[in-house]
What does this fold into?
Amino acid sequence: MGLYTEGITYSYLFPKKVEEMIDTTRDIENMSPDAGAEAWKKLLEDFSSEYAISSKFALMRIFYARLLGNEELGEVVNYKAGDKTYELCAPTVKQAEAFTRFNLSHFAEYLNEVASDRILDSSDKESCSKLIDIALKRTRSLTLITKEEALRLGHYLGLDLLEMSWFLNRVFVLDESFNFKLSDDIIDAYVFINNDSCRKAIELKERYKQSKKNTITDSAPDDKPDGFTEHIEPDLKEKIDYWKKNSPEKIDDCFIEWLVDNSAYLDKPSGTATAIYRDIFVYIYNICTTTHNIPSSDEFADNMIKIANRTYKPSEDQRDLLYDGSQISPDKCANISGAAMTTIKEIFTDTDDRQQAWRWVGASFTGRAQLKDVHLDGKGTGSLLESLLMGKTYVNKQDILILLWNGFCLCWDNEWSLKDPEDICETIAALMETANVVLEKSYLTGFYPPHPMEQVMMRSIISAHVDGTQSPGFSYSVICNSLKNN
It folds into this structure.
């Protein structure tokens, strides 16, 4: 964990830091509704403005670490751009924000020189230079780098798989790290492991499409081995070592053949993540529809971890909420998703729009704080919740996280309020731990405190403490509503 990530994480886990947030929240609660909404909006914009420079900050951190070598962390390092030498201090987010055009120009020149060995022609050179400028916010400064652009830039800069994975995890709010369920991402990972070029990644993706088109595999999607997604990355690394040793001149051919052999299992929603999502959804639906025996937050967290570890066994009645016999039922998925959306809306919001209880805070393409909702599946054809339950749509990090969050808030006991900052820190730590276990077992990226979505959840717990009468779910709705005009 880097110093920046560590600093934000522990600011929510240290009582004295939480005390400061309590004071800020109390000031907002004492404002008029309009003034309070503006104050929350300003706070969310601050979260998102830091996120908007994350690509620049991440590149500074990666190349600072490279230049640092075995020197002690915190030392000033030197880098050469042209015939001049410049200094780079241990990067902080404030330094990234304050990096002047003068410094950015020289750092961009340095990165272009790093990439020069991988530049094959003028087209490559121009493409690389543009991507560096985008990542450093020198051009297109009001927009964010995309995952596709980030991967291309990583190939140009010669990042290894670990560096590229770290970059993707830090720079993107959603689950846009390496997804080893996707053939394109596996090809990019192969190229990073081999320290090969951007052109190689493009060539292999085209070869795979043609090879798959001309090949009939014996494997069926339902025959996918248990733990396929979990093991494909280490399996790929082992295969690469074997191919390098035994068939170095045919390593690309061996890789494409191996990828085609597994193609029946790729580019489809993960069975494990879908199964976990279904079990959690049914568990939360049962909480929504009962007026007694609502689990405590601790019991909820324990059961979520059991579901993630596949040791929680739903009853036949619970299973019948989604299935007709052995088949998933479209009608039942539609009914249960609609009922859950309506009930949670009634508990946490005062709006007629039921999807508002299923919103999350992200950043727009311009880097501003923005509300996202899960009402539609992206094609405008129906509820995303229904599509996720049916197994038709990839389960992503935000899907799991907002589901866990709503369940956590349903189990909040209004008769018991957090007494002091230590209690708040323990509650936030429990949320982090539970989310991380469930996300990890679903093969998704973990709970990342600097991201706007996670910060709003943690701030909502603090706000619920200040209010003393409402759950974090209600506070979450109030904070989200401050962005309704964005």
